[in-house]
Structure formats: structure tokens, C-alpha cells
Design a protein that fits this description.
Strand order of the largest sheet: 1-2
Distance between the termini: 57 Å
Pfam families: Glycos_transf_4
GO cellular component, one term: plasma membrane
Strand content: under 5%
Helix content: over 70%
InterPro entries: Glycosyl_transferase_4
Shape: globular
Number of helices: 12
Cofactor: Mg(2+)
Membrane topology: Multi-pass membrane protein
Order of helices and strands: HEEHHHHHHHHHHH
């Protein structure tokens, strides 16, 4: 019953936010690089850090993770309303990562490991933020990751907060996973969710000793990294908005439904996660398997991307 009540509470909070966003003109206006064509309320992802706060007051989550997620969420929300310089945004990320490290007792690990995990976590947070762009992509992918973490026996003690965050995803999805979205997550949603997911990725790897779990983020990861490399080769500013992710090509240039593309990404990642968990239960999830699987996925991704780009080139030449 408590989760049913929580679900309706989150819906109420989201609707109240919509009133505030509408009153104070917190909106996304489409431009030439946008994947949407109409004015949409921004920052609906504020429901994610709010859900974390609720979980904290219910006693389901540590103060370190709560503070970390709320901190990056707050700074990102301010940035959504009035763009900030790079310094306060990066500073909030560094402090948040420091809190995550403290919670996971990483400061007791080898010193050489800390900068590696730091770079990977910061990279993941920013990659997840950059991957937002079409209706449903962020929330469905996040929900897939949360369901996966909740399934792992080692996260049994964290089920209450995982369920709470899953409910926040469902609530946000009601207004975002549509042909015409009512709201977008904004940086407040994508960055706070990315940090939350990154925390559980590190926690799951530490508790299990299974580095192969990093494949739970492989679909987003491969698309983000290949796109960044491609943009660098073109000498583009990778920090500027763009429409060159594979999912953006599919949704914008190829004309496939935004929601259909988002669901496809989520289903593909869920299928991969099921394979990884199954292989792990059989005791075969070695670094060799994980590495080989990652290489295979990358090759498949590149083949699909090259095919789509060629189709678009043919389409443009006929126009």
C-alpha cells in the first residue's frame, strides 16, 4: 500500500511542478539541433531527486547518496533555468562523486584506482546527460537499469529505494513517453539519475567482484563513445547540442517513431542484461567473455550506423 500511495504522491508532485514551470516559463524551445518541434516544459526530471529525498526520509537510503544526488540535481536545475558556468557544475559533480566514494568506502582501496573510477563515473554522468534528446529514451533506459539492479540478489537491501526510483520513472514516463511529450527531464533529471545509476553500478561491481556488470550500460555507452569519436574526427565541439547519435538518426532523419526507437533501445539493453546475468549464474562471465561481447556489440553497432548513414546519404542525393 505504501508504494501505491507513493505513486500518487509523485504524480501530485509532478503536476504541481508543471504548474510552477508553466508560470515561470521553464520551457524548452526547439532549434535546428533539437529532436523536438514544439515548446515543452523542461525539468520534469526533478521528480528523480525528489524521490531520493522521499526515500531518505523513509529511511531507505544513506545520507551520502541522498546529498550527492540532491546536490547535482539542485545545481543542474538552476542551470536549466539560467545557464551556469562550467565551474559550479563541475564542482558539484566532484563533491557528489566524493560522497559516493565515501559511501562505498573506496578511499580504503588502492590510490591508483580512485582516479580511474572518478573519470569513469564523471564520464558516465555526462554521457547519460548528452544522450537525452528524444521522447522516452532517458527514462526507459533508466528504468531498465533499475529493474536489472533490483533483480540482483546482492541489492536486496536496496530494494525500497530502487522501487521508489522505479516509481518516479513510471510517473515521469506518463508525461514523457508520448508522441508529443509534455515534459523533458532536463539536466536536473538526467544528471541526478545518471549519478544514482552510476552509484549502483559501482556498488554492484564491488559487492559481486564482477566487472562484467558494466555491460548493463553498454548500449548507451557504445552509442555515446562512438558518437563522441565521430564528432572529434569531424572537429566538432562535443559539448554543443547535436543530432548525430544513432537513435537521433533513426528518429529524426529516418522518421521512425521517437517512442518506438526509445523502447527498442530499452528492450535491447534489457535483453543484453538478461544474457549477462544468465552467463554469470553459470559462472562463465569472465573478463574475456565480457570483452568479447563488448567487441561484438561494437561491431554490430558500427555496421548498423554505417548502413543508416549510407541510407541517409542516398536519401539526400535523391532529394
Amino acid at each position: 500500500m505504501i508504494y501505491i500511495a507513493l505513486f500518487f504522491l509523485l504524480i501530485g508532485i509532478e503536476l504541481i511542478y508543471f504548474k510552477i514551470a508553466d508560470k515561470y516559463n521553464i520551457i524548452d524551445k526547439p532549434n535546428s539541433r533539437s529532436s523536438h518541434t514544439s515548446i515543452t516544459l523542461r525539468g520534469g526530471g526533478i521528480i528523480f531527486p525528489i524521490a531520493i529525498l522521499i526515500a531518505f526520509f523513509l529511511g531507505d537510503i544513506s545520507w551520502e547518496l541522498t546529498l550527492a544526488v540532491v546536490l547535482v540535481g539542485l545545481v543542474s536545475f538552476i542551470d536549466d533555468i539560467k545557464p551556469l558556468s562550467q565551474l559550479p557544475r563541475f564542482a558539484s559533480h566532484v563533491i557528489a562523486v566524493g560522497l559516493v566514494f565515501y559511501n562505498l568506502n573506496l578511499y580504503s582501496e588502492a590510490l591508483w584506482l580512485l582516479p580511474i573510477v572518478f573519470v569513469l563515473l564523471i564520464g558516465w554522468v555526462n554521457a547519460f546527460n548528452f544522450m537525452d534528446g528524444i521522447n522516452g529514451i532517458t527514462v526507459l533506459y533508466a528504468l531498465t537499469a533499475i529493474i536489472t539492479f533490483a533483480y540482483l540478489p546482492l541489492n536486496e537491501a536496496s530494494l525500497p529505494v530502487l522501487i521508489t526510483m522505479a516509481l518516479s520513472c513510471v510517473v515521469f514516463g506518463l508525461f514523457n513517453v508520448r508522441k508529443k511529450a509534455k515534459t523533458f527531464a532536463g539536466d536536473v533529471g538526467s544528471i541526478s539519475m545518471a549519478l544514482f545509476l552510476g552509484y549502483f553500478m559501482i556498488k554492484s561491481i564491488i559487492d559481486s567482484g564482477q566487472l562484467g556488470y558494466i555491460l548493463f550500460f553498454s548500449v548507451y555507452g557504445i552509442d555515446a563513445i562512438i558518437t563522441i569519436i565521430n564528432r572529434l574526427l569531424k572537429k566538432e565541439n562535443i559539448f554543443q547540442p547535436h543530432r548525430s547519435h544513432l537513435y537521433q538518426y533513426l528518429a529524426n532523419e529516418m522518421g521512425y517513431s521517437h517512442v518506438a526507437v526509445s523502447i527498442s533501445y530499452a528492450i535491447l539493453q534489457l535483453g543484453i542484461n538478461i544474457i549477462i546475468i544468465y552467463v554469470d549464474t553459470k559462472g562463465s562471465l569472465s573478463l574475456y567473455f565480457a570483452g568479447g561481447f563488448l567487441v561484438l556489440m561494437t561491431l554490430v553497432y558500427l555496421a548498423v550506423r554505417v548502413f543508416i548513414v549510407r541510407q541517409l546519404s542516398l536519401k539526400e542525393s535523391r532529394a
